[in-house]
Amino acid sequence: MSSTAGQVIKCRAAVAWEAGKPLVIEEVEVAPPQANEVRIKILFTSLCHTDVYFWEAKGQTPLFPRIFGHEAGGIVESVGEGVTELQPGDHVLPVFTGECKECRHCKSEESNMCDLLRINTDRGVMLNDGQTRFSKNGQPIYHFVGTSTFSEYTVVHVGCVAKINPAAPLDKVCILSCGICTGLGATINVAKPQKGSSIAIFGLGAVGLAAAEGARIAGAARIIGVDLNSSRFEEAKKFGVNEFVNPKDYDKPVQEVIAEMTNGGVDRSVECTGSIQAMISAFECVHDGWGVAVLVGVPNKDDAFKTHPANFLNERTLKGTFYGNYKPRSDLPAVVEKYMNKELELEKFITHSVSFSEINKAFEYMLQGKSIRCIIRME
Ligand SMILES: NC(=O)c1ccc[n+]([C@@H]2O[C@H](COP(=O)([O-])OP(=O)(O)OC[C@H]3O[C@@H](n4cnc5c(N)ncnc54)[C@H](O)[C@@H]3O)[C@@H](O)[C@H]2O)c1
Ligand SMILES: [Zn+2]
Ligand SMILES: [Zn+2]
Q1: Could you tell which of 209, 272, 367 is best to mutate to test the pocket of ligand 1, judged by most ligand atoms within 8 Å of the CB?
Q2: To which H or E segment does residue 33 belong?
Q3: Secondary element (H or E) of residue 8
Q4: How does the record describe its quaternary structure (predicted)?
């Protein structure tokens, strides 16, 4: 038992008081974990686009004051009632979507969309009592996607906590909490390219580069990167992308360009842009007979996917995925092991590192398009 178990902890957290305004490092109070909750000491966290979208709150429900952050690594400080598989000292990754292990999704081999703990970006409170565990001078501070990792301590539902190998460096594996697993799993778990095959990756941001890393691991021979921004291409070479297409360089649809390059189409494609046009192109650029396209990007509210049904009759498959189809508690430990035995490379995703007090710099790097991942060191 730690000396702080059962007590309120005072610690530093980066609080977003208002949309789009720099975060402020404040001393906050973190209540003890309740039933089925875990309090975690965060050691490293990183910034993902989703934090930025909800901090900007353009088009999203604004909820402030709030503590953002959902990619992190830490150590369990204490556990609430009913938590049996975790104990103080365990090394863990909190994840924005959970696995209760009891619902029909958790029991299905095919799904990771837990009924109880599926991502909910509008909820700013804990499920147990509908309250927050963070406060400052009695004022509640809202949670974000059940993780709120921009705090030295946070409280998370046990179903959103993956216990990992304690030998794994948390300053590297913390990036597996969201974007990297999303892209990696989209390729490895869903697109499943065969050794020697061809694959097109649409969008070479963090998620697309992780999809490319999955293709490299799977042994795909031709990894074609597609992006409207050619400045992404140089970096993408490190991720095994070996051919590049900028749709702007052609006066015909990019799916036709890719079909010509590959004698009829790629074996697989993974869309990591959020652009509806790229989603349609990603589907229409796969080969008939066996081609599989996987959509990862989050579309706009009013988007509609339009393609000729003959594309399906010609035996192309369209799929989508959430968090790379990984179940956080069951599957993340093995992804960490892939990194430990040097199959998966994580260092190349980490372009920047700042101390916690400089957290706003991480936002600047991302907004300026300079960073893939920026690690924020809590100590
Ligand atoms: N499904 C999930 O579980 C999940 C999880 C995390 C992120 N995402 C989504 O994945 C997408 C990618 O995330 P990211 O952080 O890598 O984003 P990012 O903005 O860093 O990268 C997107 C890239 O796509 C390129 N792009 C945009 N439109 C394009 C087009 N029409 N054709 C080709 N390239 C185009 C951009 O130039 C950019 O380089 C986003 O939509 C994000 O919301 C999904
Ligand atoms: Zn479940
Ligand atoms: Zn994320």
Answers
A1: 272
A2: none
A3: none
A4: Homodimer.
* 70-85 residue pLDDT tens: 999 999 999 999 999 9
Q: For 245-273, what is each residue's pLDDT tens digit?
A: 999 999 999 999 999 999 999 999 999 99
> Can you list the domains of the chain with their CATH numbers?
2-177+346-377 (3.90.180.10), 183-322 (3.40.50.720)
Q: Which of 160, 178, 272, 374 is catalytic?
A: 178
Q: Is 374 tagged catalytic?
A: no
Nearest to 84 by CA among 163, 23, 29, 149: 163
Residue 229 is predicted with a pLDDT of: 96
Any catalytic annotation for residue 91?
no
**How buried is residue 200: exposed, middle or buried, by Cβ count under 10 Å (0-12/13-18/19+)?**
buried
**CA neighbours closer than 13 Å in the CB half-sphere of residue 55:** 26
Report how far residue 201's alpha carbon sits from residue 233's, in angstroms, rounded to the nearest whole number. Answer: 12
What's the residue count for the chain?
A: 379
Choose, from 11, 26, 45, 48, the residue flagged as catalytic: 48
Model pTM? 0.96
Q: Which atom of ligand 1 is nearest to the CA of 278?
A: 31
Q: Provide the token pair at 300.
A: 């706009």
Alpha helices in 285-344 (DSSP H): 310-313, 328-340
Q: Which residues surround ligand 2, an ion (CB under 5 A)?
A: 100, 103, 106, 114
When computed from its CA atoms, the radius of gyration of the chain, rounded to whole angstroms, is: 21
Ligand 1: atom nearest CA of 369 is 20
